[in-house]
């Protein structure tokens, strides 16, 4: 949670060496980086070396293999990782402190030279799709449906109990609007399917009912509240 990650730009002091841990039996590549600050001396009018930081870098697993095969002594490198201090006691009983880095990424400083990158071959293989894999949906076996059954889909009414499934042509005919130019087409009334269509030339047709006259709304008497007039008070 409170790890300290830094980036160190410097030079490799020696070629990385392989080591194997005794407890976990893992291989790790170790090398040291020296990073020296440079400053301009106005009196001497030249650049001089400042303080130097030496840190031990540990690269694990695949990163360690590539570091050991790519970095040599004196190469300009850039290392990024977690920095920590380790206290230990030497053979003479003296307490020592060393600063180490668990590298997350290591590369060459291309501002000071050229390099060519060689990509590692992929370790994982892609799954091959076959007919059996294509026939499964979310891991469950499924079969391909070529003809969609009639009555399945949006816009079709659900059949009543005991009613036979409609054929495809009947469904299409029920969804199509009638042609007004067709003499055999039914006459539809905008008032609704249940309202009868009356012929004005028929003498037995009842006269259309006139809408009842709506009573005029009664006007409410508006009363104004009069406030008493206030007389000025003499000072």
UniProtKB/TrEMBL annotation:
This is Single-stranded DNA-binding protein. GO terms for molecular function: single-stranded DNA binding. Residues 175-235 are annotated as: Disordered. The keyword Cytoplasm does not apply. InterPro entries: NA-bd_OB-fold, Primosome_PriB/ssb. It comes from Actinoplanes siamensis. Keywords: DNA-binding.
